[in-house]
Amino acid sequence: MKHRINRSVRFGVLPAAIAFALAPTAAFAQDAGAEGSQPTELDRIEVTGSRIKRADIETSQPIFTLSRQEIQKQGVTSVADVLQRISSNGAALNTTFNNGGDGSAGISLRNLGEGRTLVLVNGRRWTTTLGGSVDLNTIPAAIIERVEVLKDGASTIYGSDAIAGVVNIITRSNFDGAEAGAYLGEFDKGDGFRQAYDFTIGTSTDRSNVVLGASYVKEEHVMAGDRSISAGGPPFYAGQSGTGVPGSFVDPVDEERYVLDANGNPVPYDSVVNGYNTAPDNYLLTPQERTSLFAQATYDITDKVSFRTEMLYNERISEQLLAAMPVTGFRLAANSYYNPTNPDGFYGGSVGGGARELIGVNRRYTESGGRSFNQNVKTWHFFGGLNGFFEVGERAFDWDVGYRYDRTDQNDLTYGLFNVANLRNAYGPSFRDADGVIRCGTPGNVIAGCVPLNPLGPDGSITPEALAYASFTAHDSSSVTSKGYTANISGDIVELPGGMLSFAAGYEYRSESGQFEPDAFIAAGLSTGNGSLPTAGSYSLDEFYVELAVPVLADVPFAKLLDFSIASRYSDYSNFGDTLNSKFGFRWKPFDELLVRGNWSEGFRAPTINNLYAGDADSYESYLDPCSSDSPLRANPQVAARCTAEGVPADFVQPGDGSSRQTLEPFTWTSNEALQPETSTTRTLGMVYSPGWLEGFDISLDWWKVEIENSISRPQAQFILDKCYAGSAGEQAIYCALFSRDPNYPGDPYIITEMDMPLLNLASYEVEGWDMTVNYRLPETAFGRFAITWDTSYTSNWSTKATVDSEAEQRQGLYLPSDPYWRIKSNLFLDWTMGDFGATWGVRYRSGIDEDCPFTGEDAQQYCSDPDRRIATGPAPRNHMGAVAYHDVQFRYNTPWNGTVSVGANNVFDKDPPLSLTANYNQFDPQYDVPGRFMYVQYRQRF
């Protein structure tokens, strides 16, 4: 048997064999040469989910594979865009996240969160954020040869985070020649322009290969105001805010809110202000620019020892844009020049009764041009190692050792924030001096450099000098460093009735460290934006694993193949201690055409640096107060009784508009150094059928179930409130202690002003469903060659418990803001080739989902599909969001000069996403496509 991996097999035959197969169903064929010739000797490769090298790419675990050609047929510029479309992915961060996004994009298999999906590059861990997730935008699509998605737990093979599954991105290697590509695309509405360029060159000798690559991607923005669904208009006015221009104030005499008319006279706020529409000021699709350099090389030192190295540099520049900062809750001094009760001031005492301090002064400073959040993220990756094989008697063993270094540095600039200390000065006493200049302070006690503000003036009344004094630019920085050493060995031990007993074993050392340094003003709590304290921490670990492949039977009746796989991994962490995780799997072929497979595996997810060491951070949370008179929960007698006991009046109305209102005061996110790892159990059972009577056809069907305990979770504001007011007595004791109300809050008494939102090992999950993949490559016809791929995931159960004693919350088929739980995700692709021409037509289907209706009474009847729904605790109206099917098409032509021209369109029929009553922003969820038909052209030239 040969033991060195033949490059032509590993990087030529394999991608071709799986180009249209989304499950590992095709075995390597034998040589079909002249009669009497010997079967082709097959090299052994390492398949995702196992460290044992083998010639058979079928495993006991379901694997979804995307080739380079399939990625290019989807007409996108990021590998994240491809992976977020696959049927087994749930809700993950992407560039449609503006408020709450940071330019990164991830993957969340089974909707279990980005941190529970392990991302590898060439079988090795990739750099993560402080929160433990991988930004797929750090991996340029131009360097990818194929992507393998293991839809099973794999902590025994790869360690922490491999709970929901593993994404293994295989880069181009052993490339000889040169290739260049260009891509241009734009929405049919004339925005969202994208361009991408890449160049790859490689050269080989008998002993070495070097591949160099560079890529550049620029994606421009789309404004929320440029799409009707997100423009903030009717029917729900989702972009409306109660804070706008002109500014408003609460008069302490009658405790009513007013604005000033054009003559400076007070007018009741509600009579003239309908809200400020923030939507036109926001990005709907955020822009970014990515530049990448990549190098990979191999060198055969001897016939049995090779050296391999790879290096990558990636820079991302991205931005999010929000409406101008709303400055709320400040007080305007009685002797401020701009206080309308001051007879010596700008308004000449138009609000009578004598000079007095105004409370609850709110204004949106539109003159600042909005809040712009900018990221510059630089990622470095290096790997260097040796691999080879040696022989002991008649047995041969593969081995490898390596060192990996990853580092990410991020620098953030935020424009449009305000300095609280300077705002207080600008809102404080002020006067007109003898030169007619408005000064801060009092005569004889002028505050140097201060420029007074007029928060009650109309749009444009704030001077650039006043803005310069009151605002500031925040500078934040963070970095993450990951280093690791690995050593692995594998080979055959002894021959059993079904074949050779094989093993793999290894050791890994890894260290993770990171830090976040917020701007000094933000750390000191002097910003009108979210406050945050510094983060710094590190941990290290040692791991050992062993894996066995045990062939039991082969080529006997009802068992063409029967084997088992067994693995175990011991992990010792410097922070929480050790953990042991094991796995058992089997493969059984009762006959050649049918493979039955199954797995049972344990898994874990270690706490991240942010989980353990993140500094306290402010967060403006969206929620609907159960004590608000317009909340459906207030009709529950239990809720009403508790609200009354807290002194909340029956006519209390939470300030703001819409279904999910944002708190006026920031809540606090906290970390926890005492966190323990999450633990999981994953089960799969399935089959692959490849009938000999239908050549080119195969179907796979797999049942899966994931159970997670001790989950690290941060109870959200709405959850905390719902459990406090409508939960059991035990839940009330836990969650009611996390927040407090202020009965004397200026202008809005009894609002919730403080809430701690800690990380705890409290939650658990149970997720179950089915995956099905059908592939059919039809025989050649006079009309060309057709291939069909249909990949579907069905979630039969997705439930979670906030605590061990809590009732399970069923989420399958439901929508939570930015977190849809589709029962069915399905992708159907039809591919056609004929000579130099080709075309692909795809359909991406998402089933309908239900959301809680935020309205009551007539509004519920008007806007909710099931307004009369009731549960045991009272009214619980719901709204149904319909199913969506996106159609994509691409046409290709291979030129005589070895080039390929492709033109295509995604969302050909301009399908809008379903309108949501509870989406945080834009009236639709960011997991759906941005509205509009996206058209593109791409060209690839090979030399």
From TrEMBL:
Query: Signal peptide: which range, if any?
Result: 1-29
Tell me the domain of life.
Answer: Bacteria
Q: What is its main location?
A: membrane
Where located? Cell outer membrane
Q: Which GO terms describe its cellular component?
A: cell outer membrane
Domain (TonB-dependent receptor plug): residue spans on this chain: 57-166
A Pfam family reported for this protein in Swiss-Prot or TrEMBL: Plug
User: Which keywords does this chain's UniProt record carry?
Assistant: Cell outer membrane, Membrane, Receptor, Signal, TonB box, Transmembrane, Transmembrane beta strand, Transport
Domain annotation TonB-dependent receptor-like beta-barrel: ranges: 337-908
Q: What is this entry's stated membrane topology?
A: Multi-pass membrane protein
The protein's matches in PANTHER family, at most eight in alphabetical order, are given as: PTHR47234, TONB-DEPENDENT RECEPTOR (PTHR47234:SF2)
Q: Which family does it belong to?
A: Belongs to the TonB-dependent receptor family.
Q: Please identify the protein, giving its name as recorded.
A: TonB-dependent receptor
Tell me which species this is from.
Answer: Vulcaniibacterium thermophilum
